[in-house]
């Protein structure tokens, strides 16, 4: 792909501005709602993985990594909770379901293997970092402060992604299938959380 086609491809993921009064606010509400839901789910994925692996023989290093990554996600979550309040936006109605799904995903991948837990991180973070990249492009001109925050969060998500690869995510059992299923689930959750 050329640089020009990369730009065109990226532009296609960014929604066109909607006409009408209040549409910018409605779009911001969608963005905040889905970002809050994503960070909420990430906290629960890492928490469940840590619960499975913490205290097991030979798993101190990954437990420490999971604690650190959960901490990053908790900071992101707290910021989006504040933004929801400041902007008077309700969280998605799907929060109880996302908590169950994230906990099951985290625990399930950790029970499969340490590498499956890393594969989960890689898959989730690959979707989230692209989602943030699209949002950064969308809000860069109208809300540079939010774009800067999203940029910082995206960089942390990319660090989690790269850490997972460095620790064997692609050696997980049924890696391609596991990764594909998780990515599809994340993309569906994004669309649902924007709307509901």
UniProtKB/TrEMBL annotation:
Q: Which Gene3D superfamilies match?
A: 1.20.1260.10
What are the entry keywords?
Cell membrane, Iron, Membrane, Metal-binding, Monooxygenase, Oxidoreductase, Ubiquinone, Ubiquinone biosynthesis
What is the native source organism of this protein? Brevundimonas bullata
Protein's UniProt keywords contain Plastid = no
Where does the chain bind Fe cation 2? 73, 125, 157, 160
- Annotated HAMAP family: COQ7
Q: Which GO terms describe its cellular component?
A: plasma membrane
Q: Which gene encodes it?
A: coq7
* Pathway annotation: Cofactor biosynthesis; ubiquinone biosynthesis
* Cofactor(s) demanded: Fe cation
The cross-references to PANTHER family, in alphabetical order and at most eight, read: 5-DEMETHOXYUBIQUINONE HYDROXYLASE, MITOCHONDRIAL (PTHR11237:SF4), COENZYME Q10 BIOSYNTHESIS PROTEIN 7 (PTHR11237)
Q: What is this protein called?
A: 3-demethoxyubiquinol 3-hydroxylase
């Amino acid at each position: 792909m050329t640089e020009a086609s990369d730009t065109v491809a990226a532009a296609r993921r960014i929604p066109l501005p909607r006409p009408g009064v209040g549409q910018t606010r409605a779009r911001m509400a969608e963005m905040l709602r889905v970002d809050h839901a994503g960070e909420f789910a990430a906290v629960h994925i890492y928490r469940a993985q840590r619960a499975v692996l913490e205290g097991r023989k030979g798993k101190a290093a990954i437990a420490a990594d999971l604690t650190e990554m959960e901490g990053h996600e908790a900071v992101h979550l707290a910021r989006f909770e504040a933004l929801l309040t400041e902007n008077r936006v309700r969280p998605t109605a799907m929060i109880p379901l996302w908590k169950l799904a994230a906990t099951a995903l985290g625990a399930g991948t950790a029970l499969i293997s340490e590498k499956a837990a890393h594969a989960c991180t890689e898959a989730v973070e690959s979707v989230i970092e692209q989602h943030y990249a699209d949002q950064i492009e969308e809000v860069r001109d109208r809300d540079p402060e939010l774009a800067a925050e999203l940029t910082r969060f995206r960089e942390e998500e990319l660090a989690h992604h790269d850490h997972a690869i460095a620790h064997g995510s692609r050696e997980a059992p049924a890696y391609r299938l596991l990764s594909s299923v998780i990515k599809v689930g994340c993309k569906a959750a994004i669309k649902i959380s924007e709307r509901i």
